[in-house]
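Protein modeling request. Please complete all fields; requests missing the sequence field cannot be processed.
Requester role: graduate student
Desired output: 3D structure, token encoding
Chains: 1
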Amino acid sequence: MATSNPDMSRETIHLELGARSYDIQIGHGLLKEIGIELTRLRCAGKVGVVTDRNLAAHYLKPVTRVLKAAGYTVVPIVLPPGERTKTLRSIGTVMDVLVNARFERSSTLLALGGGVIGDITGFAAAIYQRGIPFVQVPTSLVAQVDSSVGGKTGVDHPKGKNLIGAFNQPRAVLVDPVTLRTLPEREWIAGLAEVIKYGVIEDASLFEYLEQHIAPILTLSDAPVAHIVKRSCEIKAQVVSEDEREADRRRILNFGHTIGHALESLGGYRGLIHGEAVAVGMVYEADLARHLGYCHQDVVTRLRALVAAAGLPVRVPNMPFRALWDAMQQDKKVSAGTVYCVVPERIGSVRIVPLLKEQTRAWYETIRRGHTRSRQLIPNKTQQR
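Delivered output (385 residues):
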């Protein structure tokens, strides 16, 4: 599926979806060529650059300059940063700008940002005048390896994540790894959760690569970072090309997300950020798989060790089972009232299983008892003296 560009610094991965097919381009310096790329994609007229305040400080002026040099009329749409921006109110803000600027069906939206900006932009493009083109320019690791690819767009509801949205494929995904250097450390590390996910669900060799190279990856060394971004995009593109609308195979991409999304919504999108929640979700969904007999302990041990080595959290906050289960019931992966979860059988292979409430409760109680014992083993200040 991946084809090398004659320019060795550029990689192109083709996502085959018939008339909705597109390329994911990965290369240093792509940000400086956005005007050329939009022209090649036959975009014309106005370009609405959707971004957030933090990213605008780094990239809005240079991107605007490049687009104007290519002959485009640029309309900036700057939103507040963070998951709490992913609401219908923000969609209304984008709609107001597009209407007031007299955007037409031939106009284009450009998502310049992380997963939140990409989801908002794609959803806005899907519904404005019943659909206008959009291009993804992901700047976070989560967006570059996961959310910008595959056409899932939308916003959150107070009771659940991504409950409102549409499948809407971009014209292209343009990944410039240079943008990762302006990411806050917490955001960069959080993105590694999605890369680890790909290793568990599909590619044991990628998982082993992460185990062996986590130190240089954490320091943003060019070669290992380029490798994990490229391989993650290849896996995502392959899975999406086989199941665009998540009828079957694409559901494996939800590993870590059943518990992860529940943790995000329970925290009001103010506690764990997405990658952190997915990291915890992966560890606990693997432990649940062990409890139910789907995998051996070594799968859980290796996964927990890698997640911890990446600097990601490995434990759920203390909460009653009912709160967690109720939040999981609100997830969009629930079908006919049944919660479905992706669980590993081994590193590189997963399956989708229904969760029974009482079985899940029994597992969760063992987790809570384990946490209590761990706290009891930590000496308090009086004992230390």
